[in-house]
Amino acid sequence: MMYTKEEMRELVTLLNEAARAYYELDAPIMQDSEYDALYGRLCLMEEELRERLDDSPTRRIGGRPLASFPPHKHAYKLWSMDKCQNAGELRAWLTRIEKLLGRTPSFFVEHKLDGLTINLTYHDGRLIQAATRGDGETGEGVLPQTMTIGSVPLTIPYRGFIEVQGECFMKLSILRRYNESAAEPLKNARNAAAGALRNLDAAVTASRRLSAFFYHVGTPVAPPLMRRDQMNAFLISNGFPVCPFLKEADAANPEESILRIVDTIESDRSSLDYLIDGAVISVGEAEARETLGYTDKFPRWSIAYKFKAEEAITTLKAVTWEVGRTGKLTPLAHLHETDFTGVTVRHATLNNFQDITRKQLNIGCMVRLRRANDVIPEIIGRTDETQPGEIPIDKPMGCPACGTPISERGANLYCDNKLACKPQAVMRLTHYASRDAMDIDNLSEKTCSQLFDALGVRDPSGLYTLTMESLTALEGFGEKRAGNLLAAIKRTRNIALDAFLFALGIPLVGRKTARDLAGYFVTLEAVINAREENLLALEEVGPVMAACITAYFADDCNRILIRKLLECGVQPQARVHSGNGMPLTGKTVVITGTLPHYKRSDMAALIIGLGGSVSETVGKKTDYVVAGENAGSKLTKAHTLRIPVFSEEAFLEKMKYQSNSESL
């Protein structure tokens, strides 16, 4: 039988409309048998014409399973979201917004979906990649899996490069129908969606019949997006399904209006066919969002209002003790498996042994759980009924990992065997190598454990004694992998001071505080010798943190470690301009793309050290843009606004700094 391309086009359009009606609108326009027959006819057409259209539904199920998920670097960072849980916290956020803007903007409220974040990439109207969120900068490529989701458009009218973020989930009705005939029923919708999207076999993903709602456009060129509702309209016009709930708060009294909308969402929660765990409140106008910008972790212009924690009851089966990076022993409760707020729960947190005693917990007793903010549940107490055969929980006398007698400091138990206790040493090595610290590629927790066992690496200074011969003798290490690891370690010998301070693992000192310390004290020696009153001069440092910092540097073991690192050639540097004035004082700089020699975090530290500020978005208040490879839409917008754009080399020359392959 002879088919034409026009007939193929008509059939593809019909099948896509049927899929959208079925998956997105829940209003089928044809029987399953009719769809299957038309799908079979399309397969014959494609075979006869030797052609397959970009949006053909036959593209949705791939071939053989993948061996692994490829890493994918997002063109636009996928941020986490700040949280609030009551009216007071919401009011504080609204006050900050109004203070920063000098006015009251519009606010929109929508469902906070409880699924798995997904980021779609389109180029010239065609879906070319899909990825999980990962760490916000790099995720896992899941294109074959995502193409099985019937509501995800394979082609869109918009041309150019664009990223679209959304949430992948399994409808509760689909979960119920799936479990009616499944050999192994799925426990809950959230785990089912996450497990399906991250299954190497796309056929398994297809069998779960996942759905998705989309809510954000990351990197359009010349975006037609001015307000949150207009962004939804743009998404809908390009065939993306969006959450059906989006309401604008009353401008006359936004706080009262937002709380009223949140209450409505929570009261209607049980009637929905998908899981939500709160509401998202966001500033409406794109210009206001750009002005507000971002913190190190969150956009300032949105916040998640989390619903009150729910509770459940189950049996406490056992308690084990986990040894952390600082040697602190933390009890972990093992529970009788229970389904709780859409998640299968097997473990819960306890603070310390005093917490166990205060709550009168025994092995075998019934406990009450509370889960909030997407974290591991907490045991809030036991039920009144005593169960037969309850066994008291004993305080550990020795470290569960190395047997060293424990010490008590305050309410907590500690193992003081810093060098020979494996969990402590491995976690310190892993932290030292992490992205925000020394950023040593391919030095995972598993590899750190291998180095501890086979090569006797007990602290970070041991990394600088590794050789090609010692590494290639290890299982799984060839010359290429060993060479890459040695090169990554070598690059850390010249490192920004703030990254080094964070890598040390000083209690309570995060990346931002480390940056503040480096900027204020300038040299490592000055930080080491700082007294508590000196530290309290920093706005972010309070008495408790100041005491932790001084105690860390007063510890002989920590001083010995720092000396050993310096002897290995590690040179923490604060990049401060030597002139009387700072060349970037009052200037805002945007970094985009991949720089040839600097990590973006280190370039940001350099800019801050020169008196400037770093922004994630290009706008009228941007003074300079530093652009590397694959700069994308930020570079385009900079050219449109006639903002000076520099390469890494040109920017460093302007700042009177020289760069080489080992810089920072």
Descriptive labels:
single chain; 664 residues; Helix Hairpins; D-amino Acid Aminotransferase, Chain A, domain 1; OB fold (Dihydrolipoamide Acetyltransferase, E2P); 6 domains; 7-stranded antiparallel β-sheet; 5-stranded mixed β-sheet; 26 strands; 21% strand; disordered C terminus
Structure description:
The chain is an alpha+beta fold and about 675 residues long. It has six domains: about 5-60, Orthogonal Bundle (Helix Hairpins); about 85-305, 2-Layer Sandwich (D-amino Acid Aminotransferase, Chain A, domain 1), CATH 3.30.470; about 310-410, OB fold (Dihydrolipoamide Acetyltransferase, E2P) (Beta Barrel); about 420-490, 5' to 3' exonuclease, C-terminal subdomain (DNA polymerase, domain 1), CATH 1.10.150; about 495-575, DNA polymerase, domain 1 (Orthogonal Bundle); about 590-655, BRCT domain (Rossmann fold). The protein has 24 helices and 26 strands. The strands form seven sheets. Strands 12, 13, 14, 16, 17, 19 and 20 form a seven-stranded antiparallel beta sheet that branches. A five-stranded mixed beta sheet has the order 2-11-10-3-9. Strands 5-4-7-8 form a four-stranded antiparallel beta sheet. Helix 23 (about 635-640) links the parallel strand 25 and strand 26 (about 645). Helix 1 packs antiparallel against helix 2 and helix 16 crosses helix 17. The longest helix has 19 residues, at about 5-25. The protein is globular. The model is unreliable at about 655-664 (pLDDT under 50).
